[in-house]
Design brief:
It is a single chain. Helix 1 (about 10-25) runs antiparallel to helix 7, helix 4 packs parallel to helix 7 and helix 7 packs across helix 8. The chain is α+β, with helices and mostly antiparallel strands. The longest helix is centred in the middle third of the chain and has 26 residues, at about 125-150. It contains nine helices and four strands, in the order E-H-E-H-E-E-H-H-H-H-H-H-H. It has a four-stranded mixed β-sheet with strand order 2-1-3-4, covered by helices on one side. The protein folds into two domains: about 5-80, Glutaredoxin, CATH 3.40.30; about 90-200, Glutathione S-transferase Yfyf (Class Pi), Chain A, domain 2 (Up-down Bundle), CATH 1.20.1050.10.
Length: about 210
């Protein structure tokens, strides 16, 4: 049975999984979820993922959720090409990099948080300042790790789960007008990844539900 990825073109969490699937060379069907108009909260999608979030990866009778957990599952079940290093300490560093993005940056500036801030009466300028602030703080923590361990990509000379998380977050940073100049190692890793076919295939503008700017 074909796999189905429930995704939104511009959301960074499913973007991570699209990169992972492309790196592994795994085919899937794309099921668009319109996050802008609240399709993720409708009963039909809640039946797929009761949390009402993307991504959700249906592998035929089982639905996997949470992007980092999905990426780890892909590595365990399809170990080649590897997206985690072979050394345990190196894997810890990669997971730290991924965690900074997925646990410390993204949860504080995703669409749900933006809607909540709006309902609290925060104007768009304030929401933008909030979003930019958390991206900057996270990138400040991530930059020295990439500078120390990167050899083209975020860690080493091959894509890892760290890049699966970093590249979508850099895309989001550009979207929210964050100047990347203070983080040259992050910027260089993202630029290197942009030339990789798996990252190109996973890019938001390449998705079937992409909306022209």
């Amino acid at each position: 049975m074909a796999w189905t990825l429930h995704s939104h073109w511009r959301a960074t969490a499913p973007y991570r999984v699209r990169i992972g699937l492309a790196l592994k060379g795994l085919a899937y069907d794309y099921a668009a979820v319109d996050l802008v108009h609240g399709e993720q909260r409708a009963p039909k999608y809640r039946a797929v993922n009761p949390q009402g979030l993307t991504p959700a990866l249906d592998i035929g009778g089982r639905v996997l959720t949470q992007s980092l957990a999905i990426l780890e599952w892909l590595e365990e079940t399809h170990p080649e090409p590897a997206i985690l290093p072979s050394d345990a300490l190196d894997r810890q560093v990669v997971r730290t990099m991924a965690g900074i993005v997925a646990c410390d940056i993204h949860p504080l500036n995703n669409a749900r948080v933006g809607r909540k801030l709006d309902k609290m009466g925060i104007d768009q300028a304030g929401i933008l300042e909030w979003t930019q602030g958390w991206i900057r703080d996270g990138f400040d923590a991530l930059e020295p790790l990439v500078a120390r361990h990167g050899q083209g990509f975020a860690f080493g000379d091959r894509p890892t789960i760290a890049d699966c998380c970093l590249v979508p977050q850099v895309y989001s940073a550009n979207r929210y007008e964050v100047d990347l100049a203070p983080w040259p190692a992050i910027r260089a890793a993202a630029e290197r990844a942009a030339g990789h076919p798996a990252f190109a295939a996973a890019h938001p503008t390449r998705q079937p539900d992409a909306v022209a700017p």
